Amino acid sequence: MKTAKLAKSYRIDNGKHFRINDFDPADTGHWHSVENAREALQDGIARMADLQAKLYAQDCWSLLLIFQAMDAAGKDGTIKHVMSGVNPEGVQVYSFKTPSDTELQHDFLWRTTQHLPERGHIGIFNRSYYEEVLVVRVHPKVLESEKLPPSLLTKNIWEERFEDIRSFERHMARNGTVIRKFFLHLSKKEQKTRFLARLDEPEKNWKFSEADIHEREYWDDYQKAFEDMIRNTATKHAPWYIIPADNKWFTHLAVSAAIVETLEELGLSYPKVDGAKRKEILAARKLLTKK
Ligand code: ATP
Ligand code: MG
């Protein structure tokens, strides 16, 4: 089964006309079931492993993958899937929670900037500076706690943050960090099913959080915030992928297809061996065969 065009249909590189309701969280492309997609899932992992090895060897580009979603959309499982075949040495995963006191002493891009991937590496952000236009927008109290000078807190704050994020991402792109952003698009109904499973199944109880249930009451506000965020920050060099999230296997398939597509576009290859290196290799062979 081909995944070549799969990721493209979910990619937004110009957000101007984006509407969240145009996308179906239960979409599974032309795949019908996990059995049906198994081969493509394994193929995606193998291709990612090969491409990551080249990215690492070349030590030139870096890849930043950002995951944003409502609770229970499957960020953790998706990251686990994406990581499953790659060399852990070349990947760094960071989860961003409520900012610490130290982090609140700085601007909103400070804490994530410190964890940007090195050249040759893949960085995965489980949540990111995008929380600054999501949870912070949905809950005005959170913005109040950010210690900004009152005169800077105007009605333009979200526009300003979008502009700053766009500039930041353009800067990163111009310096060799390829950014791809994933919104795992879950339906409200499927979130309820997953929350209930956390209550009913003992091995999922640890995942249950009362706060998540309360956050669900702000569902519509979050959907609006996600839509506006994507409208304002989807660009050619840092596109958003709107990934259907009601079926976990399809989420994994679509995300890995997007990563493979991205890395393939870079035309990666192992560094060429020059004359001096070739001489070293020949000399080493001689030494080894001498015994
Ligand atoms: P999981 O529940 O799967 O362990 P999670 O990402 O939901 O993972 P939690 O500790 O449950 O982790 O939640 C992290 C919380 O931190 C979220 O409610 C999120 O909105 C909040 N958060 C993240 N970044 C910021 C930020 N910049 N400002 C305020 N809150 C933030
Ligand atoms: Mg949580």
| Helicity level | 40-55%
> Cα distance, first to last residue?
50 Å
* Ligands: adenosine-5'-triphosphate, magnesium ion
Radius of gyration: 21 Å
Strand order of the largest sheet: 1-6-5-2-4-3
The domain count comes to 1
* Percent in strands: 5-15%
Query: What is the assigned CATH homologous superfamily?
Result: P-loop containing nucleotide triphosphate hydrolases
How many β-strand runs?
6
Q: What is the second-level CATH architecture?
A: 3-Layer(aba) Sandwich
Main sheet makeup: 6 strands, mixed
Number of helices: 12
List SSEs in N-to-C order. Answer: EHEHEHHEHHHEHHHEHH
Structural class given helices, strands, pairing? Answer: alpha/beta
Q: What global shape is seen?
A: globular
CATH C-level name: Alpha Beta
Poorly predicted regions are none
Query: Could you please say which CATH topology applies here?
Result: Rossmann fold
Determine the mean pLDDT: 95
Describe the structure.
The protein has a single domain (7-290), classed as P-loop containing nucleotide triphosphate hydrolases (Rossmann fold, 3-Layer(aba) Sandwich). It is an alpha/beta fold and 291 residues long. It is globular and about 75 Å long. It has a six-stranded mixed β-sheet, with helices on both faces. The model has no long low-confidence stretch (mean pLDDT 95). The protein has helices at residues 34-58, 75-83, 101-104, 110-113, 135-138, 140-144, 157-174, 188-200, 210-215, 219-233, 248-265, 275-290; strands at 11-12, 62-69, 91-95, 122-126, 177-185, 240-244. Adenosine-5'-triphosphate binds at residues 71, 76, 95-99, 126-127, 131-132, 135-136, 142, 209.
